[in-house]
Amino acid sequence: MATIAPVATSIAAFVGLAQAGPFDSPTAIASFAAYLAAFGPLNVSSELGFAVQQFFLNGGARCYVVRVQTVSAQSLDALDAVPLFNLLCLPGVYDRALLSAAAAYCVKRRAFLIADCDPRAGTPELLVATMKQPGLEHGESAAVYGPWLQIPDPLNPGQSRTVAPSGSVAGVYAQTDLSRGVWTAPAGLNAAIMGAEGLVFSATDLETAELLEAGLNPIRQLPAGGIVVWGARTLAGAGSQHQYVPVRRLLLFLEQSIIAGTEWARLVANTPALWASVRLEVQQFLQQMFQQGALRGASASEAYFVSCDQTTMTAEDIQEGRLVIVIGVAAAEPAQFVVIRIQQMTA
Predict the structure, then answer these.
(1) Between the CA of residue 196 and those of 54, 58, 328, what are the distances in Å?
(2) What is the pLDDT of residue 266?
């Protein structure tokens, strides 16, 4: 039996147009200088390079970049070659059908889509109207941010450039994960966006509330001058167990970590001895998460439970080697469990 290790939570994947580099092949990037070396200078007709630049500026450390000729649902297939990524950005893309396809791909890969709002909506009223259009499918794995940002134009010193916010927000996610944990909302006064000098528009308190109600996570310019991410809601909608970004991402993190940490069971017979070992291993991992503040509750029994026995597996499951682990975690409220079902094939 091995100890379950926490997986990475903020490896980003960017898909878009670039000046150079291989097509449809994910390239691991660890700095903006590495991006320039692999994909050439910033492209005025593409948001990709600016988004990657903002990602690293705001706390991102690792990402994959896929250069495509046209951003489409098929473009995402190139990411099949990436063993693990957590955040997906299609900088500048706001087409609902394409974003729905991206969210569906995130469900498949246990990742999360950070989407840009429609750049044509230059006022809070217009942006609310665009958000009320037919919603994205698989909204539990996606969040939309806006308005677009204004940054010092790296191609024209002394001038400003309007850029998509997704790269900056992905960097804020990464910084929040590092400093406070994936279970913490990447929003509020601790979610400042570096490198931005303005927004396409500034929303009032009332307009901000309307944007939140419409499903958008607003970016706000505070009176003191700072620009911050001011929302952390998915597109799942009110009442969903996955309504909030940190809850959804915590569940994805737990699922990925437990799946990776129990792969050793593939080499063991599906017997009560295995079930006991797996239960102990998962309980130890969830206890560690509870002690770090990831789960809610005054006691472990209020924070999580783990089942792996004849109540989670049928006789057919056992005979055919299907190990089924059922865990419940209090991601938002004590003793209000969100249930995750994990399956491994055993020897």
Answers:
(1) 9, 10, 40
(2) 93
- Is the domain spanning 12-245 CATH 3.30.450.40? The answer is no
> Are the beta carbons of 257 and 247 closer than 8 angstroms?
no
Structure tokens at 151: 């940054």
Q: Map residue 274 onto helix, strand or coil.
A: helix
* Measured CA distances, 292 to 44, 176, 180, 289 (Å): 44, 15, 10, 5
Residue 102 vs residues 54, 156, 234: alpha-carbon distances, Å: 21, 33, 14
- Tell me the C-alpha distance between 260 and 283, whole Å: 15
* Residue ranges for the chain with pLDDT beneath 70: 1-2, 135
pLDDT tens per residue across span 185-225: 999 999 999 999 999 999 999 999 999 999 999 999 998 87
Give residue 323's pLDDT.
Answer: 97
Helix (H, G, I), strand (E, B) or coil at 135: coil
pLDDT of res. 246: 97
Please determine whether the domains at 12-245 and 264-345 fall in the same fold group of CATH. Answer: no
Question: Which one, of 32, 196, 166, 149, lies nearest residue 93 by Cα?
Answer: 166
Q: Across the beta sheet with 338-345, what order do the strands follow?
A: 304-307, 322-329, 338-345
Two structure tokens written together for 124: 């809070």
Per-domain boundaries in the chain = 12-245, 264-345
Angle at the Cα of 76 from the Cα atoms of 104 and 105, rounded to 5 degrees: 15
Q: Which of 103, 99, 141 is nearest to 118 (CA)?
A: 99
H runs (alpha helix) in 117-223: 124-131, 166-180, 205-213
Report cis status (omega within 30 of 0) of the bond before 147.
yes
Nearest to 188 by CA among 164, 207, 162, 212: 212
Give CA–CA dist 278/284, Å, rounded: 10
Three-state secondary structure call for residue 29: strand
Cβ–Cβ under 8 Å, residues 289 and 254: yes
Check residue 347 and give its pLDDT: 83
Q: Does domain 264-345 have CATH number 3.30.70?
A: no
